[in-house]
Amino acid sequence: MRFLFQSPAPSIQKKSHVVRNIVAGFIAVLVVLLILYFVALPLLSSPFTNPIVNQATQPNIQVTNLNVNGGGFVNSLSCIANARTVTVTFTLVNSGNANGYAEVELVSNGNQIQTNNYYVSQGCQSPETIQFQAGCSQQNVYVQILSETK
Length: 150
Known about the structure:
Layout: H1 9-45, H2 51-56, E1 61-69, E2 84-94, E3 100-108, E4 111-120, E5 125-134, E6 141-149
Antiparallel strand pairs: 1-2, 2-5, 3-4, 3-6
């Protein structure tokens, strides 16, 4: 009779160890996945925090070959109605690793004349021309890039 009243405790203890190990494993996997999702993945994919991603996907647009035609002093006798057309030519060169847009500003005698957006493909050059009306005085003209975007 002794065997009929024996406690079933050993089989319950084995099952509780198995359940406890499964729960602990599940929690460990969940913690690892959360760390990967919230810490590692943003660091690897963000162009702001990862300089390799940032460097590999940005345009690098520069102004070259600036030429101003009609920007010098004009004798008032040859300047019709105190105005003349000044033609500015330049080339935008994208040496970066991505296509991009450049916001370009034309300045004459310290005053903004015009702002334009130009698209320049990666590894390409884009010749551009801007014309504006100026008075008869000397025009100190330059072109600058205000911003670049993809």
